[in-house]
Amino acid sequence: MLTTLLQEGAENLPSLAAEEEPVEKTLSLFDLLMSGGISGQIIIIVLFVLLFVAIYIYFERLFAIKAASGVDSNFMNQIKDHVANGNIEAAKILCAQQNSPVSRLTAKGISRIGSPLEDINTAIENSGRLEVYRLEKNVSVLATIAGAGPMIGFLGTVIGMVLAFHQLATSSGQAEMGNLAEGIYTAMTTTVAGLIVGIVAYIGYNHLVVRTDKVVHQMEATAVDFLDLLNEPA
């Protein structure tokens, strides 16, 4: 009889322990980001919009710069042959077929053949400025997002901390620590989101600057080669 009672008690122990075991509270990332009140939600939405804009500008400019840097390695040799043979129209047609910053720069110089070298150089420089402007279109927006993202996130944190301490002040110091802690870590999520946006935009901006500089150097080298071609003795 006693043995049977002991066995039944032992069998019931796991179920009692399972009932008494505390349930761990879990919170999804989306719930965490959206649980900061109306002010926190507005800031998170703004940061998501900035992140989308930064990613869109990065890939749009990356593909544009990649297309601009694609020039046939034999392009200048063909231009030299056409110009040396006096076949200016063929050189213009070749530039139009390439349709790149380097070819447009060369076409501008070819169209000025017969003018003084200083005028040709000025025309090429002016055309180069326009090409650089096209390459850098909207890239400055990435720099702005890289600086504004963390600042907006920090603004959300400050607002969250102000609200948390306001709750503490209005409760005469008797506010529950759980509510305060939840408000504080929710406020910190805006800083994390802002830093993520800033880091993505900063890396994207610097990568585009490096790629743009390569195309600019390519244009400068082409301009020098073209001017040297015109300076060669007949």
Automatic annotation (TrEMBL):
> What is any Pfam family matched here?
MotA_ExbB
What UniProt keywords apply to this chain's record, in alphabetical order? Answer: Cell membrane, Membrane, Protein transport, Transmembrane, Transmembrane helix, Transport
- Gene Ontology biological process: protein import
Domain MotA/TolQ/ExbB proton channel as annotated: residue spans: 98-220
The organism's place on the tree of life at top rank:
Bacteria
Write down the membrane topology: Multi-pass membrane protein
Its annotated compartments are: Cell membrane; Membrane
Gene Ontology CC entries for this record: plasma membrane
Where are its TM segments located? Answer: 38-59, 139-164, 184-205
Question: Per the record's keyword annotation, is Transcription regulation included, yes or no?
Answer: no
Record family assignment: Belongs to the exbB/tolQ family.
Q: What is this protein called?
A: Biopolymer transporter ExbB
Q: Taxonomy-wise, where does this protein's organism fall, top ranks first?
A: Bacteria, Pseudomonadati, Bacteroidota, Flavobacteriia, Flavobacteriales
